[in-house]
Amino acid sequence: MISAEVVPFLILAIGVDNIFLICRAERNIPEFVEDVEQRIAFALKEIGPSILCAASCESLAFFIGMLTDVPALQNFCLIAGLGVLTDFILQMTIFVGVLTLDNHRIKQNRIDVICCVKKSNPQPPRQEIVRKNFQEHFVPVLFSNPMKISVFATTAALLTIGVFSCYQIVLGLNANVSLVEGSDTYDYFESLYQYGEAGPPAYLVFNNVNYTNPDNIANMNLISA
Which pairs from 136-139 meet CB under 8 Å and 24+ separation? Predict the structure, then answer.
């Protein structure tokens, strides 16, 4: 359940992030480089090593997680690590090819949705409002001395709080994360998680018991008590 519910969003987040980085690097290439293939090559030369390093570290971290003894966690780490590597390969092959075709479409003044139709009066590309405002307003404030001091102080405070919070972390996983809320099993594990701090639970296993006999049920309740 963890692999099916978490891994798709993990792969989507990593894939979208790298796609934005590749597009951003391609748009930063100077205007005098007009050949589309050269622009893509320069963009990958600029951002490719960073994406490769990030994908390698992420997949390696997941593969190291397979050393754990928990089968569910081993499954999750294997699927996530392979997903990150596959995502990187698809970004360097399929997405780069699609980006090249899209740049050819832009140079030929073709419409994005119906690429067989050309524009008669192409419009210039839109100005980047967000990046322009960040460069003009946010970056100078961020690199000012008072802001640097406040950022370092906030980072130190959060780090201190995180270190002291480690002593309050409850070890182990709550089994209710994989159960339906309101079921009998959920209520059992919820009560066990809240009131079972005295130690690990003990289980009594009875073999070859006739549960239709009320005397056997009474004896089992007596032994359990």
Answer: none
Q: Is 56 helix (H, G, I), strand (E, B) or coil?
A: helix
Examine residue 167 and state whether it is found in any structural domain, yes or no.
no
Please indicate, yes or no, if residue 156 is contained in any of the structural domains: no
- State pLDDT tens for residues 171-205: 666 667 777 777 777 887 777 777 766 566 667 77
pLDDT for the residue 1? 61
Between CA 107 and CA 102 the distance in angstroms is 9
Burial string for 207-222 (b: 16+ CB within 10 Å, else e) reads eeeeeeeeeeeeeeee
Verify that 190 and 102 share a domain, yes or no: no
Closest by CA position to 84, among listed 8, 1, 5: 8
Query: Total domain count for the chain?
Result: 2
Q: How many CB atoms lie within 10 A of CB 134?
A: 12
Domain assignment of residue 84, given as a range: 2-122
Q: Is 160 contained in some domain?
A: no
Other CB atoms within 10 A of residue 90 CB? 13
